[in-house]
Amino acid sequence: MNIKVLGIDLAKNVFQLCALLEDGSMGWNRKAPRLKLLDKVRQLPSGTLIAMEACASAHYWGRTFMAMGFQVKLIPAQDVKPFVRCQKNDAHDALAICEAAFRPSIHSVAVKSVEQQDIKALRCVRRRLVEQRTAISNQLRGLAAEYGVIFPQGILKLQQALPEALGDAENGLSHIARDLLYGLHDEIRLLNNEVDTITAQIIQLCKQQPRYKALLSVPGFGPIIAAALLSEVGTGEQFSNGRQLSAWCGLVPSQYSSGGKTRLGSITKHGNRELRTLLIHGARAVIRFAENRKDDMGRWLMQLIERRGKKKAIVALANKLTRIAWCILNRQESFDARLAFKPLQ
Questions:
Q1: CB-CB contact of 227 with 123 (8 Å)
Q2: Mean pLDDT (the chain, rounded)
C-alpha cells in the first residue's frame, strides 16, 4: 500500500486519520486514540507526508513527526474548509486535509521551533495583560468622569495625572470613589510591572535569533514587531517572495476583475490580524516623522503622501516594510534605504 499523504484531524483525545494512496483512492479513514497515535504513525514508511490543520497543538505534533523522519505540512484552517463535502464530521475533515495538501496555491504554515513557540507564548500573555490594562484604564476614566474628574488622553498621561487627582481633596471625588481609583491605580502598576517583565523576556529570547538585530534596523521595527515576525514567519522560506508574505498579512489590495478590467479595492485583511496591526502601527510611527527625513526614504514617503494621502501612505509603507523584512529573513540581507526606497517617477 503506497500512501501518498496521511491527513490527521487533530483533537484532544481521539484523532481521525485518513490515508490517500498514490492512485488518488482512499486507503482507510479511521479513528485513533491519543495514546496509540504515534504507534499508528510509526507503521508508515519514512518520509511519508503528514498533513494537518494549523490549529491547537499542530506545531507540537509537527515537531514530533519531523523528529521521527516524516514530512509535515500544516494547512490554514480556512483553506481546508472549502474541501469539506456533504456534512461536517471528523472523517470528512481528515479527507479534506488530504485533498488540500496538494493544492499549489495554498501556502502552508511553517512548523514553529521550540524557541519560536516560547516567543509566541510570551507574546500571547503580554497581549492579554495589555488588554487588561487598557480595560482598567477605560473603566477608571469612566468612573472618574462621573465625579467631574477628566484625565488627558493616553495611558502614560493618565498614570502621570492620576496621583495628583487622588491627592486633590477638592475635586469632587467621594471617599468610596477615591478608594476605588486607588485600587485601580494599584492594578495598573502591577500590570505595568508584569508587562515590562515579559517584554524583557521576549527581547532576551529574540536576541538569540540570528536575524533579530537586522530586523531592528528596519524603520518602524521595534522589539515587539521583530518578535512577532520571528515567531510567526520564521525564516519566511514558505513564501517565494516578499509580496506573498505581504499578501499573507493582508496588506495587498483586494481585487475584483473581469473581462480584462482590473478593479482594486481596500486591503484584503487576510491572514494574521495581530501581525498586520503591528506592521501598520510601525509604519504610522515612521510617517509621523517623514518630514524630518532628508534621505531617499524621506523623499519617497513625501512623494507618496502627496499623491495618495497620509492614510494610504501608511498602509503602502507597511506593505513595503513587510517585503523588506522578508528579504532580511530569507536572503540574509541587510537594510539599505538607498536600495529599498527610490524616488517615484
A1: yes
A2: 91
